[in-house]
């Protein structure tokens, strides 16, 4: 059932189209991420939902009602900004209370809700602190509390974790996910970090140059990328040319010394896309030579020069002996782990 | 935030609404009076008939042909140019020295040097009048005791005195302008030059000076235009005999009461300054467009 | 290359001495016990400060300057804040022209402004009035108020305002509770700078002031034109003391270099 609906939304600045033909339905309680490189239109889309920008075309509906005619101040959405945008001249408690004040919530209820929300984000006892005397992580929590205390119909997160260091970011991801699960708040996250999108979201909207490339669960978008862009953007991937030979029966898919039974429906030149961790070293397969070998703790990363060009292979550090630099190897993988595209299709 | 600024009609309306009070004030009390002054410079004036609202070129003709005005404008330009030169030659090194000081000294001396900017020009010029004060003024006593001069120099009512006092009044503008340029210079850049084998003089000449030159030049424009239109200092130090453009216009307005002629002098001053400022700004921007893009 | 050598420090010392000398000499002479211009050698005396009281025109001029400065800077700020907000946040056609117009009094010689105002006020029949003087001062100090407010408004993180709007704040609440508190340091500094500019202005005011509306700088200037005696030094010393106090407060509050250079507030 659709809770928030974007229907062929587009935004133009002058002659430049920043977002085009954006359609998405978000269910109640769902956590959806807009993922893409900077300039892909994800923040613009978020700002249209928030009401800071008006769409040039298309409709945005919340529970069936047109949202674009509602003033930003009346939309009742909670927003966490990349810069946190805390009010520097107000204490943490005053920051959180601001939205309740605007809603004329009675003083005593307001105080109670502020206290409870700050406690929920782990900031009990920090009520009287001013933002500039708090760490980045604490400021981030205040911003989250401020957005959540008004019980927003939708929570909008604009790169909320990008200013935190790596360790803190991971902690906050887990915490954010727990809070969102507990409250059941419909949430939209804008991010350029694929790990963040995958670990937090129910569904990911991958965007590029103002258009949606793919909408799917984290697993779908990773395992079955709909385009070369998606496969490149979500993690490392190997793309290389292969051919399907229909002269023999049954037909064969051939890439260098590696071959497999051809799948139905395709012929001629194709592109194989395979994740580096799905490639194994075997006795038969694509001939390659290890160029560099990098140890990364829980896994090894190999850069190989193969018959079909440069390839990356990732092997778990399971204690087994790994091939050395300069060693000749054979690369093999299961046909069901790769995805095939006709060459020249949907870049 | 990757959103571009919008130019919705709604925004433009709000913007004009917010600026409307100030705009009305400026059109009513600045644009119209300036236009009236330009008009005034074409009016006629006589000792007994007063101002006659006719359109004649008499005042402009007088300003253009009477050598008295030519001399006065040359003196104004000379004083302004010398003042600019002195502030640049002394102010730029001082700004550089200031910038190399450690935190607390830096802000203390910055306050000492920039502070006078906000102290009444009359009070500052009065100080110079006291220092110059006739043949046995403090400056003369000091210079003679140092053996730099044999007999007292006269500073009051001379161009030398006006230039010295004006340079003092204008100095903060130059220091400020160069100092602002220095803030954009990477502090590591001198170490980089040092590591490449450059000596201190080479570093100043090849590394520092080219980078602060825009600051020196924009400071020079400010100092020149303010010096050329200065009133208090030339009036107090220069006295009634040593006229510059501003004091001449003052006399025409408040003593001779020949307003149209005074207006012509003022308009000429304004036009000359605007041309010089806009012209040199354009030159500097073209010259340094590459450095500060 | 990071520290100054002895030559640089000698240059610096001489430079600072020369910068301070005229101001110091005025302040010292003001304390002379003698009846003529001289540096106090044996004792300091306040006689010339007491003498000011016998010259009601100086006292009156001081009050005129104070009132004029306070009023004109206040009015200028009231006009400047909305204008600065509009210029800082909206890109609309004519914005650059508007900003140039608002800053133009900085570029126009004050002698020209004085003449233009004198001509205009005489023509509309308010020549020599306090009202005319006030309006003229508002225009002249407006750029100072605008520049600092503009710097504060430009340096402000716009998403803070967006956050307030998303939490339900209306236009007026947004301004009163969020925008104004955030730009307040800039506004107050702009007001203070505007006040000092109005308080110190001579060149323009000398054209407009009549015996009833003479400001302190005008009175001092006209007095010096006739003769220089210790009285005018004690008046000057008082003016310097007032300005220095304002200056130190301004420096503590906002940073003098930022006030004078009109640089952007780095925000938070």
Explain what the structure shows:
The complex is a heterotrimer of chains A (347), B (293) and C (268). With 347 residues, chain A is α+β, with helices and mostly antiparallel strands. Chain A folds into two domains: 4-231, P-loop containing nucleotide triphosphate hydrolases (Rossmann fold, 3-Layer(aba) Sandwich); 236-342, no CATH class. Chain A has helices spanning 42-50, 92-102, 107-120, 136-148, 166-183, 194-200, 218-223, 228-233; strands at 4-13, 16-26, 31-35, 57-62, 65-66, 78-80, 154-158, 186-191, 203-208, 211-216, 238-245, 252-255, 258-261, 268-274, 280-282, 286-295, 299-306, 309-316, 328-332, 339-342. In chain A, the strands form four sheets. A six-stranded mixed beta sheet of chain A has the order 6-7-8-3-9-10, with helices on both faces. In chain A, strands 13-12-11-14-20 form a five-stranded antiparallel beta sheet. In chain A, α2 (92-102) crosses α3, α2 (92-102) runs parallel beside α4 and α3 (107-120) packs across α4. The longest helix of chain A has 18 residues, at 166-183. The radius of gyration of chain A is 25 Å and the shape is elongated. The two termini of chain A are 32 Å apart. With 293 residues, chain B is an all-alpha fold. Chain B has helices at residues 9-40, 58-65, 67-100, 103-114, 121-132, 138-145, 159-183, 189-195, 200-228, 232-238, 245-256, 259-288, and strands at residues 44-46, 50-52. The longest helix of chain B is centred in the N-terminal third of the chain and has 34 residues, at 67-100. Residues 1-7 of chain B have low confidence and may be disordered. Chain C is mostly helical and 268 residues long. Chain C has one domain (55-261): MetI-like (MetI-like fold, Orthogonal Bundle). Helix content of chain C is 74%, strand content 0%. Chain C contains twelve helices and no strands. In chain C, α1 (6-29) crosses α11 (230-254) and α3 (56-89) crosses α10 (216-226). The longest helix of chain C has 34 residues, at 56-89. Residues 262-268 of chain C have low confidence and may be disordered. At the B-C interface, α1, α3, α4, α5 and α7 of B face α1, α3, α4, α5 and α6 of C.
